[in-house]
Amino acid sequence: PSCFGYPLSIFFIVINEFCERFSYYGMRAVLVLYFKYFLQWDDNLSTAIYHTFVALCYLTPILGALIADSWLGKFMTIVSLSIVYTIGQAVMAVSSINDLTDQNRDGSPDNIPVHIALSMIGLILIALGTGGIKPCVSAFGGDQFEENQDKQRSRFFSIFYLSINAGSLLSTIITPILRAQECGIHSKQRCYPLAFGVPAALMAVSLIVFIIGSGMYKKVKPQGNVMVQVSKCIGFAIKNRFRHRSKEFPKREHWLDWASEKYDKRLIAQTKMVLKVLFLYIPLPMFWALFDQQGSRWTLQATTMDGNFGAIQIQPDQMQTVNPILIIIMVPVVDAVIYPLIKKCKINFTPLRKITVGMFLASLAFVAAALVQVQIDKTLPVFPAAGESQIKIINLGSDNVTIKFASQTEEVNVMPQSWTDYMTFETSQMQSLSITSGNKSETTIINLEEGKRQTLEVKNNVNNISITTKLLFDNITSKPEEGNNLIRFINNLPDPVNVTMGGTSFGVLQYLDASNYELFSGGRKDNITVTRNSIKCSITSKALGFGSAYTIVINECSGNVMNVTYSEDIPPNTVHMAWQIPQYFILTCAEVVFSVTGLEFSYSQAPSNMKAVLQAGWLLTVAVGNIIVLIVAGASKLSEQWAEYVLFAALLLAVCIIFAVMAYFYTYVDPSEVEAQLDEEEKNEVKKDPDISEKQVEADSRM
Q1: Where is the composition biased (Basic and acidic residues) (predicted)?
Q2: DSSP 3-state assignment of 418?
């Protein structure tokens, strides 16, 4: 059966691919944040495990191709590995349910190792599944066409690539929204089970759709794997060359010619072409090392930025959608506009030059990321080092206050109802300070905690008998994660007050008491309610941004009048997420000229029956690229994130130059010409020696 001149079966294949990519990219989008916030790993471990997983996903295709070509056939391989894959996604969803081990119901899992073990099993199954079916699905789609349907077949591959990007685009938008929901049985937490559960459900749908089409598929029998033959041929050539290493044997033109005792000329000629292309692949992994950090380092960078786009609030893991959106726009634009323009300018933009430009652009994107990182670092708060303490003075009275520190000569002036920034001192030298306000002056002994931040409340009482001081310990050691805000209250009223904000109760605060900091999700305005002597007054808080910490001072609550002041302890994220768009744009341009060209070039330079070997080689470059991230990030020990970005950019630039030199010396071949030449030679040999065709048959049967 066919439809619009296409075999009906390929519609099932395209839908299957869409669901499978949705499932994979959806899970991958939230993965690094799941590691960081749910399993509570630090940035480096999260990045390392993320890239190990991605590398595995690109190593397993070689296994999948071998199983399909030598044993099960493509159809059965896709079905059986999809089942493994679906189980993996389901295990992943179960691993993220915090109520699984949360006995004390405080909202965080009590037995983290159980969750880690489950999610690692899930990820290994997913890597086996997604990798194993990757080389089979597109080839299986290609198998559905007749010999004379070349045009439809190439159109199918375009639609196929589009379904990949559509799946990844939708899932990268949807899964972070699911993750940001609150869910749970005993306590409401970020909804990772939903974010992993929806991809798992889609994987099951993908499998069912694929099986429904079963009756319509053309199923080609497994014909043995060409990779095995190529490896055997290379192995034999090396062994044979080593056996004949002494001087008395004549040299051969190419080391692969040493395989000619056992293998026919055609296979040797084809293997030479493949090796020529694979040699060019050696520098390529460095590109993927940068490209795949969109899901790890760049997503972690977005968590320290401001995601407020007016009407909508962007989650950090949603920034990755910029890539598929741009791909869908850029691929046609580059093909229809940019390449023709370059041609008009009489520049010969060969495939290898395109790949070189792609590498250069990717390294530029990382320079852009480093510049953004430098801006972010300027807004990050500085916490006291070992041997240091920080103190902030907050004046709650109605008179000016002047503070003189024991070890310093200069004085600090604080207006009424205002405060200083955090000041850093050596803990050992900071024992006392003298306070002057109005006509009174007194010296206070203070004990600062080393490595901590403290706030000193100062209030000059109205009846002018004394100055009241109180030292508060601020238990914040880092900027709030995930764009959340920390809020605490100080009661500047003579009576006890009961404070709630949003749905969170801060309890009863006595005169000059401070509450603990409580966590609120970013970008909201909440209602503050204060009860004083059974009189209620309320006010809506100002917008507190993302990633900030505030101390809110309650100055008045009588009748319906309420007055509070906001003292900023940690400034909110001020660098906007939109500043990540330039680096995504440059990297997407790089991907368009690099990735699309790379596969096209490979196929044009090798015989048609060797495509599987090249596909495997190409996927291998992605896997190695992810392993490079592990090695570089592990070995560099750079404490500054911007410096790591610059390091990656520099490494890729160096590799880009090496590749340009290699490309300069590369001569393009036309495989069909080589094949025609071989056919010609064979014909001539048959004419000379009629027995040769029989020998050839014999040799083929031995292989």
Answers
A1: 684-703
A2: strand
